[in-house]
Amino acid sequence: MTNPSSSARPGASLALDTVRAQGAKRSPPLLRVRRSSGDVRGALLLIAPLAAFMLVFFLVPVVMLMSRAVWDPVVTIAFPQTAQALGSWNGEGLPRPDAFSAAAADIVAADLAGTLGEAAARLNQDMPGMRQLLLRTRSHLDGAADDDGTPGADDKARQRDEQAVETELVAFDGRWGDAATWQVLANDVQPLTLVYLLRALDHERTPDGAIVPLPRDEGVYLSILGRTFWISAVVTVLVTLLGYPLSYWLTQLPKRRQRAVLMAVLIPFWTSILVRIAAWMVVLPRAGLVNRLATSLHLIGTPLELLYDRTGVIISMVHILIPFMVLPLFAVMSGIPSSYQRAAISLGSHPFEAFWRVYAPQTAPGVAAGALLVFISALGYYVAPALLGGAGDQMLSYYIAYYTNTTINWGLAAALSVLLLAATALLFMVYRMVAARRPVASVEA
Amino acid sequence: MRKILWLGVVGAVLAAEASQGALARPLSVVNYGGTLADAQQSAFVTPFQSSSGIEVTASSYSGEQAKVKAMVDGHQVSWDVVEVESTDVGRGCDSGMYERIDWAKVTDAAALDKAAKTRCGVGLFAWGNVFAYNTKLTKTPPKNWVDFWDTKNFPGKRGMRKSARGNLEFALMADGVAPGDVYKVLATPAGVDRAFKKLDELRPNIQWWDAGAQPAQFLVSGDVALSTAFSGRIITAQKNGQPLDIVWNGAIADYDYWVIPKGSPMKDDAMKFINYTIGANQQAAYLALQPGGPVNSQALAKMSPEQLKNLPNTPEHAKADLVNDRVFWDEHGDDLDQRFAAWAAR
């Protein structure tokens, strides 16, 4: 979820930075490394409280959460004896009979300890049907197949003869006699896992260890990532197209009216995102304000589908994100002396050419800062698509929330977060490379 | 002498306060909110407080088990009785999130429906997973799931809950599978494919909902022509004068359950509260406010004919109905949910 109030500050400082960057010759936006000539140690002391705060309340939790994407010991915890028994197994054929009795004992013990469910869910990721197999085997071993009442004989399984357990399990469900089942178990008793990251990349591991792409109808996250970037890009372009003239107009206004218009931009910015989205939910439906107005003006015959549709998502996101463009752009634009443009015109340039060749390049740092801010904020959007979009308009954050809250698959949620973070970081790096290669065209150049 | 006595009294009072201080919080009951919470407040919470002397605070959540899991994992359990759907009762139990129910301590155990008794959850009430329509906008009443899928004779969008549960069963019934065979068919890979193929037909017309209150809103505003819904919500809307009607044919009866999060410091009081709510009188009082079916068969005798008409499990409804197969969903839910999430995301 994006929090506008917390993002406001980086926006403003970014804008200031770009204003300062203006003066410097040939410095690409956002990239200027300012060399400190003052007391380095004093500066470090000044930032120490913030650095400590960031470390404790931001970096450590984020890293801990992300580590869940690859570190998942639930099966290790639930199947300690099996892990030991399978330690010497080479993965071919069936394991020795003691693995069968260890697995049977672990299933009963894990069930009593309440760790079986999560382990089953994890194993099921690697091999569909494992959950069913484990739960059925549990009821079979408990002798409490009717599933009500307390589990029966506690350690019945452990007392059985090892060979007898093997025969019994295989007779109960043929899958216990299949090497693939044991390969999955042997893989997953290792706490280090790739299953979540692979799934986030639309791949899976077969029981024998090969990595293969998921069937077309199951692998969706890469296309959802693409959709996330696409929606963000469309929103960024629209915000730039709308925000640029607005900011320009704003700088041309007399001081007093400027303040009033700036207020009009800022008041929605300070309003809760939820409130603004709720307002769109009133404005956009079939029988809502927009459709009724358009129908009564005979602009359209049948009401437009604006809600539960991508149009609604984009409209609301553009509305929410416009201040993130206007503020940095306005800061940059108000620092550009209008005399440059006038000088160009007086020297015989066409007014449009003067604008395009003299004025516009000077605003480039502001556009870049605003666009980057809008794009990266948009990538993490959750509330707007969730409330205004259809099933095909949800962005990656929606699935992170879905796996965190609804299905409690925290490994996959963490893997998707890693995917989003990595893709964003990659994009930022590409941006920096492009920006570094092409210095801001400036008047002096 | 009097001074010492006085000191003793003060000391005893202080000691009592201190010993209570550690545990002195009201029993925390958490439900799904809305009209359901109002009904529980007047049928369960208020009378239980005055009859037992145990203080109870009721609050609401929207069903995310992540909160319960975070509490249990962090050993800071501040919820004592939580209402969950059948989806969660088995899964959460296997994951060690809930206390096991000691069925010897459940007073009305013998009168309870079989489906209401699980390892970690005690049934609270039954509701129907049905579909509804706006009687003003849809002139010819639809009769069954075949009509729900028929966008020619019943044009317009279809409201559906964004979850595999229910929709797959509905799709199979629309494809001609008899209610009694639905779970048998769905247990086979071919049956799953068949259900998804049938859902594909409806895909362009689906408008998803996820909160129980949405279907009635969609139907009243005319945004959708037909919508799957929880029976209780539609009946409540009918009572408020909305022109909605339910198609009971092919309904899936399902239960809500009470669970006790593992490590609750007030397990005994929690069990007392649960026992109270499944008593015949309380069940009848609750269902007079929140339409649905009782878990306690003795409550049936205390219900009005009007109420009985709206049960998800009356004899006449039961002929064409099925009961949600909790065990099936416990075993196959992971796979089907995953496939459904991928299907819906495209």
UniProtKB/TrEMBL annotation, chain B:
Q: Which residues form the signal peptide?
A: 1-24
Indicate whether Nucleus appears among the record's keywords: no
Q: Which UniProt keywords apply?
A: Signal
| InterPro entries named among the record's database cross-references | SBP (IPR006059)
Q: Does the keyword Signal apply?
A: yes
User: What's one Pfam family the UniProt record gives for this protein?
Assistant: SBP_bac_8
> Any idea what this protein is called?
ABC transporter substrate-binding protein
